Amino acid sequence: MKPDRSSRRRPERQRFDPNLAGMFRATREGKILEANESFARTLGHAAPTELRGRHLREFYVEPARWDLLRAGLRVARSVANLEVPLRRANRSVVWVLMSVVRAGADAASGLEGSIVDITARKRADDLLRETEALRSVAALATATAHEINNSLNVLKGHLQLLSPRVGGDLAAAHLAPALAAAKAIEEIVGRMNQIIRVELAEPSGRLPEMLDLRKSASVPDAPRTDAPLTA
């Protein structure tokens, strides 16, 4: 009497199909032989049958990552917990935690693996990094603004003392531009204390990336804390 192969595979199928993780079996080259519903849904497909015969490499946003995984499996039998961006059916990107194991001991064996959607976690991690970067930028800007204000107040004081003593063409040519520059610096410092986001200025020539204070501040023009300077 021949053994019933389907009955031997039934417990395996029961573990494979309802698994919350996306499960797949593939040839050693990566051609998909079988997948469960979760695997298909993660990649944006309606059913696992849509994926049979397709190559895992074609779903990689960066196909070179698949080549590296294959190279790793020639040395080790398994590769676990790789964070990989994959391309879904609608061309959007889904981040997954992927683990792959050779089904047999030799390098010619087929592959079995799983993927878990970690897109939400990646977005949360990215948001946390952006928040930490913003906090660092804001702290640096606040400290810098404080130091600038100290020198600016001294400069403003001397300019205001000179103002009633200088008149005519000399005031128009030298004192008025100095007062206007002090006012502009004061407004810039005000924006530095109002940073709520990190917005970079448009690239210009060979200059490095720079923070755009107008776009990064909470208001277009920071409020003045004292009376405007006049010549």
Features:
5-stranded antiparallel beta sheet, 5 strands, 6 helices, Beta-Lactamase, alpha+beta, 231 residues
Structural classification: alpha+beta
General form = rod-shaped
The CATH superfamily of the largest domain is known as: PAS domain
Largest sheet: 5 strands, antiparallel
Taking Cα atoms only, what radius of gyration do you get, to the nearest Å?
Answer: 32 Å
Mind telling me which CATH architecture of the largest domain this is? 2-Layer Sandwich
- Assembly state here? single chain
Bin the helical content. 40-55%
- The unreliable regions are 220-231
Name of the CATH class of the largest domain: Alpha Beta
Number of alpha- plus pi-helical segments: 6
Order of helices and strands: HEEHHEEEHHH
Strand content: 15-25%
CATH topology assignment of the largest domain: Beta-Lactamase
Global mean pLDDT: 80
Strand order of the largest sheet: 2-1-5-4-3
Brief digest:
The chain has 231 residues and is an alpha+beta fold. Helix content is 45%, strand content 16%. It is built from 6 helices and 5 strands; from the N terminus they run αββααβββααα.
